[in-house]
Design goal:
By secondary structure, the chain is of the alpha+beta class. It has helices spanning 36-45, 56-60, 71-87; strands at residues 25-27, 32-33, 90-100, 110-122, 129-139, 145-156.
Amino acid sequence: MSSTSPQVRDGWQGRFYEDFEVADIYRHPLGRTVSETDNTWFTLLSMNTNQAHFNAQVGAGSEFGRPIVVSTLTLAIAIGQSVIDVTQNAFANLGLDDVKFSNPVFAGDTLWSESIVLEKRESGSRPAAGIVTIRTRTLNQDGAVVCSFVRTFYVHKQGAARAADLFPEAAEPLTVEAR
């Protein structure tokens, strides 16, 4: 085995204000299958006592014939899916508007989200940041829209001190020879 000098390659650092362009669409790469356990835990964590979300007998008697996933879990997953593409370098959400739940989500459904940039502007009070507004929609595995919303957030500009990479320097370098 030859000795090779390792080259450090930065991982994905997310988008900064300058990277956003109005009308750009980001298809977020990670789908998420919602389990019955996810739904039960989220109803417990959020103290949602509507039995349509966790009682099979109540769900069976509903118009859906089974329990539905709590809508705020669907929203949380959708926002989470978008972070890798739109808010990795954000430091504050400013608004969440026009939230819609178009179709029910059930345990076993796989959710996918995509976002379109609606607008962007410089911040008047924070010169190292800008404000971006996106619309996100979430689809199930059949392509049906289950959730959509508009979100506005502050995002760092490139080179902003508070957006600096905080990865620590190792005491010993990582080498090809180390096993």
